[in-house]
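Request: Mind sharing a record?
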Amino acid sequence: MAEAKKQIAFVVDLNKCMGCHTCSIACKTLWTNDKGMDHMWWMKVNTMPGRGYPRDWETMGGGYDGAGNLNLGKQPKTEDYGKAMEFNYEEVFFGGGNGKRAHLAPRESPGWGPNWDEDIASGEYPNTYFFYMPRLCNHCSSPACAQACPYGAIQKREEDGVVFIADQEKCESCPEPLCMKGCPYKEIYRNPVRNVAQKCNGCLPRMEREVAPACVRQCPGRCIWVGFLDDPDSPVHKLVEEWKVALPLHSEFGTKPNVFYIPPLSPPRLNNEGDIDATQPRLPVEYLRSLFGPEVDGVLSRLKGEIEKKRKKEESKIMDVLIAARWQELLGPFVKDPSEAR
């Protein structure tokens, strides 16, 4: 597979994500509202630590081994996504007198869903903890999904590095979705109605009209940046390549992902008397290492140092970018308003 001439990338600041799911809904209403796509959340916000979506995706395998050989992991099952919930709308809204006594509820529990373990904390009181993590296709530089596809239906665009399903007809002829087994992030879905694989397309139709992807444009917390890694003026380039405070998720999968995360800072622990114990973080660093690798220690230290600079009214270019006082700074080269795109 040819290398991309330019590589689109995303940076997500986990310290600013408030779990509002605006990015998820923006993507859902735009791209995954067709038949067979009920279970598809190309952008989803997981509570961490948690089992995620699809359930337990981190343990399903895929990606490459240490020698660069492709690993085919498990394909998520229907129960790992959970069936789309159907609610008793007719009874509540059109049930006459009974509607006054009934409350809105799912007809049956699906057993799991994209936000099933939302806001469920880990640890023990008073030192419980969790944080939110938006997840989308990583548009990897070495996409295991594309290598796993026996028909060459999945390609990586040379002009921007977006990984997309280029040939739906070839995809329809595939008897087994090996792409789903190859992707270690489980960001490819199978449409049971159309019998094709579908995934995040990076909002290509928007980007080709200089409009930012929906998840970036709609984020009210200003926590997602988009841009090209090779653009030295891009905040994405500076955070990832220059300042090195944004890290990939599970780089050990070997796919060279292009979604990067500013790791979450932790409040201090409380002792048995309820007083602050500043010697230990509440969020275990060991857990963050399991997500972002050993480099996370240095990143956390650097972020704390930059925050301290701001408190002292000293200059901090890193914090100036992360604060994002002007929301247009998040959009990279895709600055057009959607209403103006033609």
